[in-house]
């Protein structure tokens, strides 16, 4: 597997890249090659006095590269210019990445959960599963919020095709997952199950698949606002990562992030793994 790790060379990005436990988790799910990507925004001009942005970023990436190579990965680096989320998405597609990783600060001074514009735009346009790796906000030397990326998973499903696609990520996550919580929130807008099947029964079927892989699994059917209930489940069960699918394409073939997924990506305390729909020809 190949993973693309997007960095703006900030302290938050450094925390994501240099955490040994996070790197070990990526190795356990089958990542062998990591592409480090940093984008110089289009509005930063090459000719600005005293600024050699490409050279400075290449030097910074070389330090990160050494850390990741020492952890046993093959590494490629990319310093490119353009709109960050578009270039990152384009490179991920070109190299055939199985996952894109971006660091994001956690709680804001106003006690709201926030993610940066690049992380939000990646969530809306990604063509690969996107791991938003939460990093401490109020720290001069921040660390990741959850050391183990995939040890305790919370999978949220509405039983849609996109949610089923997200569940299939367990085919590789299982190598780093010890326990999982499967959550469904009953709402009138559910895609629906066959009339003879209850949500609790369907969750138990999914749980059985994970338990066959040796993953300790619980199920939880809730009622209420989906995003609020999923985030309440995060508070109750303390997962390392929430796994969720996103919804559909617009006429412009751009991924539109569903409101529930967007709320979870923006407001979760810990990491979020967002799986987009399969691309159509």
From TrEMBL:
Gene3D superfamilies xrefs: 3.40.50.12370, HUPs
Domain (UspA) ranges: 2-132, 150-276
CDD domains per UniProt: USP-like (cd00293)
Taxonomic path: Archaea, Methanobacteriati, Methanobacteriota, Stenosarchaea group, Halobacteria
Protein family: Belongs to the universal stress protein A family.
Superkingdom of the organism of origin: Archaea
UniProt-recorded name of the protein: Universal stress protein
